[in-house]
Amino acid sequence: MTEPVIALNDATVTVANQTKILKGLNLEIFPGDFITVLGTNGAGKSTLFNAISGDLELSSGTISYQGKNITNLPAVKRTAFLARVFQDPKMGTAPRMTVAENLLLAEKRGFHRGLKNRHLTAEKLAYYREITAKMGNNLEDRLETAAGSLSGGQRQALSFLMAIQVKPELLLLDEHTAALDPKTSAQLMDATNHQVVDNQLTALMITHNLADALKYGNRLIVLHAGEIVLDVKNQDKDQLTEEDLLEYFVH
Ligand SMILES: Nc1ncnc2c1ncn2[C@@H]1O[C@H](COP(=O)(O)OP(=O)(O)OP(=O)(O)O)[C@@H](O)[C@H]1O
């Protein structure tokens, strides 16, 4: 049987006053899974991501990466196999560095970062032009522009490319299109889907958009009050409707 990339086993996160914000969660993420993650505000979606990334400690339970127990592995070490894209376009890119410099920096994910002894060769620039062009929002014409001067959509596309520059074993997309206008959001979502499929990435994507959650990915989970209340894949997912999903939001 295929080994999960990440497995959470009875994962519980408890915060001050003993409130459990993840309650004994079990989840196996398999290679190639593209899982959309839904849930009401406060359901525990970001907490799940923080537990996987190591930004929040489990109070009980375990997390494994390819069969190895990583429950106590610090977040910084997990960046060797995990990458995350946030909702806020300001996160994930260095604003004063150019697009090309940001991409160069991203080649060091999981290692000591720095641009010392590293150069933007003509070859690299040509490669960056090629990968940015695939995002479909003219980022390829702005390789010499400081990331801080890009549009929100371009900046999120750059954050996304930086996250996959070194192929992560798991990509965490934390509402990465939510801060964008509807058209830009749809465009980035479409580019995201192509990248995930073409590069055979394993990804978890938090979204509040029911249509996107149904349209993209092979698997869908719904969180409620720190628990997974729905986990469907393939044909079962294909048969779901927005009306079915809305039932999970009437609380
Ligand atoms: N460090 C923390 N300390 C105390 N409570 C926390 C902490 N982090 C999250 N919470 C609480 O845990 C619950 C789950 O929060 P979380 O951010 O994971 O929800 P979410 O599903 O991502 O919500 P949203 O859709 O609003 O982003 C919330 O009630 C939140 O207030």
Automatic annotation (TrEMBL):
Highest taxon, organism lineage: Bacteria
InterPro entries membership: AAA+_ATPase, ABC_transporter-like_ATP-bd, ABC_transporter-like_CS, ABC_transpr_LolD-like, P-loop_NTPase
Lineage of source species: Bacteria, Bacillati, Bacillota, Bacilli, Lactobacillales
Entry keyword annotation includes Heme: no
Annotated GO CC locations: plasma membrane
Domain ABC transporter: start-end pairs: 6-250
GO terms of molecular function: ATP binding; ATP hydrolysis activity; transmembrane transporter activity
The protein, known as: ABC transporter, ATP-binding protein
Keywords for the protein's UniProt record, in alphabetical order: ATP-binding, Nucleotide-binding
